[in-house]
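User: Teach me something about this protein's shape.
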Amino acid sequence: MRRNLEIFNGALPTKEIYSRWEERARVENNGALCVFVGIVREEAISTESKDTKSQNIEALSFDIYTPLLQKWFESWQERARAVGAQILMAHSLGDVPKGASSYMCAVISPKRRAALSLYEDFIEDFKANAPIWKYDVINGKRIFALSRSTPIQGSGVLK
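Assistant: First, the predicted structure itself:
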């Protein structure tokens, strides 16, 4: 059975994932493979400390509530199936250093129109509603990225 949703400990093996997804698209006779890769970038984060105005993150760290993520993802799979497409996604659990990838998704379909019609909406909804919590890693400590987080609809952000 081919899995459409994969969770990896640490940074994603992007070349391996892309290769599998491209082969899958080819074997299933799909003509479109739209891939997005999220890369942890170097970023200065404002701190609440008066001694330092900002610090650079070393990594991002992720927690995932898998049952809710699977439910959210399956709702997108149903939407994709309705237009003859399918969505593939991989995400990191735990720490991902800057310069490495934590998120990949792809939409595959026989023709590009179906893939392109889902691509941006899926990525934006992922950012807003997927039950994945992001932390900045600064000086070896995980700090919840509250200022860059969005509460899941119908819930709140825990502090």
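Now, about its shape. Strands lie at 5-9, 32-39, 44-46, 54-56, 59-64, 86-97, 101-109, 132-138, 141-144. The longest helix spans residues 112-129. If you'd like, I can walk through any region in more detail.
User: That's plenty for now, thanks!
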